[in-house]
Amino acid sequence: MEFEGFVKAELAGLTRFAGVLAGDRQLAHDVLIDALLVASGRWADIGPMSNPVAYVRRIIVFTFLADYRKTLRRRTTPSSDNGLLDVSRQDGTGQVDNRRLLDGLLRQLPRQQRTAVVLRYYLDYDDTTVAEAMHTSTSSVRSNISRALASLRVTPDILQLKEDFG
What we know:
This protein is mainly α. It folds into two domains: about 5-75, no CATH class; about 90-165, Winged helix-like DNA-binding domain superfamily/Winged helix DNA-binding domain (Arc Repressor Mutant, subunit A). Helix content is about 75%, strand content about 0%. The chain is built from eleven helices and no strands. It is globular and about 45 Å long. The N and C termini lie far apart (about 45 Å). Residues about 80-90 have low confidence and may be disordered.
């Protein structure tokens, strides 16, 4: 598969993944673009892989974690709606409100913890896969997830999410 075809087929999913990981629309786009530039340069090696999407996700994670100084320079202050359209009243389900609440909770976590939580619960990776993606040990992954969940448990907003999801 050519790189252009891969991007057309996988861009939506990679964009959602980068968005959940970064917690900021502009930062997610920047991280995704940087990662896709790296992937395009290595496409001769990545393209023939059995699962190139997983490898590109790994590049996104690495770019997000390693690009700390650059992202601080590029960081924008999100608008009051965090870049999302306010359609929560139109659909009646409150899903947008829940998404905003979850996004706000994830933003409170340090980068390593947020990355571990997103890889575990958004992509449903096991400890070993998360550790490989983050270039760390499985015990570090478990520690980051444990600390993140402990931090989220003491946040009053988590009670609202629990009520909404039962």
